[in-house]
Design a protein that fits this description.
Structural class: alpha/beta
Shape: globular
CATH topology of the largest domain: TIM Barrel
CATH superfamily of the largest domain: Glycosidases
CATH architecture of the largest domain: Alpha-Beta Barrel
Largest sheet: 8 strands, parallel, barrel
Strand order of the largest sheet: 8-9-16-17-18-19-20-23
CATH class of the largest domain: Alpha Beta
Distance between the termini: 73 Å
Number of domains: 3
Radius of gyration: 27 Å
Number of strands: 31
């Protein structure tokens, strides 16, 4: 066995150290981009006789069968899975092997693709799984169309890879709109493809309680259902509702199944149970938890509501009982307790709340919220868990051991890191995927904002103002999908793809290795994968940026760029609207001062967006 393992390592090492610089003609389309990649000459040819060989098969049972099942699904081949024993023929095989020497990072891996075989080596099964994701992306996009052919060519290469950040998350709100278990699993598959390791599941809010709690059956009998849903945009007049009962929830059996499904794919699910605000659905079920008598209703519109949990013994007993059942379902180290957007009007009016402020020498209602969150944090800590909250939990003082999720920009994250608390960056301007990603005139309704694919890709989770010690508290970044205006899973995909791919590279790839033009090329190839898999996606913003690159004696040098890969840009210099017959942009050009430039992207002769206009001054 030792001799065989030495031979495997030798093949990897010799291939790597004898290779030259990456041949430019070979395109590798892996997202997120590996930390180190060298392209080698030639290809490995995967055919019906290719076998999967596993060292320590008992530890890689899921990973080996996962790979075999995907290969079988898309090629019709049914690769045999064998354990490595004695002297075996290693040609035309893929070898999966665990080795502590492969990477210092437990999520890291090495992959060597030669003409003879493929080897994926990692210190842990999660690294093997991530190596498999990279391998699957080495197949051409047509692989995902399940076209049966005699062989598939995989470009020879050597990869040494590990993530930049330990926390790489995607969020999904199922309270505003509910998605059945099959959709949640498909979402998890999307996360797995891009090496995310955390799924933040927003399970409760004003518009619906989505998790079965056996001790409190009314939470799903009442709280999981609303009488109606707002039609159109929040704040528009006249206000209209669809008058249709809407809702749903996940049984504990379904949740256990989903948690197991995610864990197999090395994704931890962090549940979010909102408190002390965003709890209308809970108060509609158990009105005695409020500071006022009610009645309360599951919210039928969006926004922030005045009624919140009252910090009395009965409320804490309720929340501790709920969290006890939640912890039994979710083995995650973290439990998310929300803590955002908590109006204090009811607390200001409450004699109980005012007594508590005086009793515990709290400064004000913000201090009371900190005390509230602190009690919950201590309860979670006593049960071996850690608390995450949105950055509002900083107000009034932060609980020990709490992790902050910074969503209102980066200020909260900076403050928390300076205080020595761990931080997950989720600033809405970069990572909220419910925002528009292209011109709203051409997009389905969204909550607002404007967060393009290029903007997501430009983000760096580590604020430059932090020193090295403080920067270590930045665990990574998370993309958030709030669903007020996302009623179907198809639209979830449209809003998340391809922006989650850009965030995956932000979270995984070393900052110095990021390259927007190269990402443009790779994501364009991934669009073909989305089509083959039936994923809905946004092709990006068709807006043309008119950039003044330089000024010369004869005028100004102009470049026209777009988020679209290799766009067909047409432009005019006489003030007229571009048409398909207008001059095609091919390279930067020079114009005199005062020139009015109009430019637009065309696809198959069709104008895709309102032309961009700029007068050169």
């Amino acid at each position: 066995m030792k001799k065989l393992l030495f031979l495997i390592l030798s093949v990897v090492s010799l291939s790597f150290f004898s290779c030259n610089e990456s041949p430019k003609q070979t395109a590798i389309n892996i997202i997120p981009k590996p930390a180190h990649l060298t392209v080698l000459p030639g290809n490995f040819k995967w055919n019906s006789k290719t076998r999967i060989l596993v060292v320590q098969p008992e530890k890689l049972k899921f990973e080996s069968h996962y790979l075999a099942n995907i290969i079988s699904k898309h090629t019709g081949f049914k690769p045999e899975i064998d354990s490595v024993q004695g002297e075996m023929d290693m040609s035309n095989t893929i070898v999966l092997r665990l080795s502590p020497k492969a990477s210092k990072n437990q999520e890291g891996y090495e992959m060597n693709v030669t003409k003879q075989n493929i080897a994926i080596v990692a210190p842990a099964s999660k690294g093997i799984f991530y190596g498999i994701q990279s391998l699957l992306q080495l197949f051409p996009p047509s692989f995902y169309e399940s076209i049966h052919q005699k062989e598939w060519k995989i470009p020879a290469c050597f990869i040494q890879d590990a993530p930049r950040f330990p926390y790489r998350g995607m969020h999904l709100d199922v309270s505003r709109h509910f998605f059945p278990p099959a959709d949640i699993k498909r979402y998890i598959d999307m996360l797995a493809m891009y090496k995310f390791n955390t799924f933040h599941w927003h399970l409760t809010d004003d518009q619906g309680w989505r998790i079965q709690i056996k001790k409190y059956p009314k939470l799903t009998e009442i709280g999981a259902w609303r009488d109606s849903t707002l039609i159109g945009r929040y704040g528009s007049k006249p206000v209209r509702y669809d008058k249709k009962r809407y809702g749903g929830f996940y049984t504990q059996a379904q949740i256990r199944d989903i948690v197991h499904y995610a864990a197999q794919r090395h994704i931890t699910i962090i549940p979010e149970i909102e408190m002390p605000g965003h709890c209308s659905a809970a108060l509609a079920s158990y009105p005695q938890l409020a500071c006022t008598p009610g009645p309360f209703h599951v919210a039928t519109t969006w926004g922030v509501f005045k009624n919140i949990y009252c910090p009395k013994k009965q409320t804490f007993q309720f929340l501790e009982n709920v969290l006890t059942e939640v912890m039994e379902l979710f083995p995650s180290k973290y439990i998310h307790i929300g803590g955002d957007e908590v109006p204090k009007a009811r607390w200001k009016e409450s004699k109980l709340c005012q007594r508590l402020i005086k009793k515990y020498h709290l400064k004000n209602e913000d201090g009371l919220q900190s005390w509230f969150i602190g009690k919950i944090g201590k309860f979670l800590n006593a049960h071996g868990r850690k608390m995450i909250g949105w950055d509002e939990i900083l107000e009034g003082g932060l609980s020990p051991h709490a992790t902050v999720m910074s969503w209102r920009g980066i200020k909260g994250g900076i403050e928390a890191a300076r205080l020595g608390h761990d931080v997950i960056m989720a600033p809405s301007g970069y990572t909220y995927f419910d925002h528009y990603q292209a011109n709203p005139k051409f997009q389905p309704i969204a909550i607002g904002g404007f967060t393009t694919l290029k903007k997501v890709y430009s983000y760096d989770p580590v604020p430059k103002v932090l020193n090295a010690a403080q920067a270590k508290h930045i665990l990574g970044a998370e993309g958030c999908v709030w669903t007020e205006y996302i009623p179907t899973f198809k639209k979830v995909q449209y809003m998340a793809l391809p922006r989650m791919a850009a965030l995956a590279e932000v979270d995984w790839t070393p900052a110095k290795e990021k390259n927007w033009p190269d990402f443009q090329r790779r994501i364009h190839e991934h669009f073909q994968i989305y089509k083959a898999l039936g994923y809905n996606y946004c092709p990006g913003s068709y807006k043309v940026d008119i950039v003044v690159q330089d000024s010369t004696k004869t005028g100004y040098q102009i470049a026209l760029t777009s988020e679209i890969y290799h766009p067909d840009i047409r432009y005019t210099l006489n003030g007229s609207r571009p048409v398909i017959q207008s001059k095609k942009y091919e390279r930067p050009f020079t114009v005199p001062k005062g020139t009015k430039i109009e430019a637009a992207v065309f696809v198959k002769g069709k104008l895709m967006e309102v032309p961009s206009v700029k007068v050169i001054k």
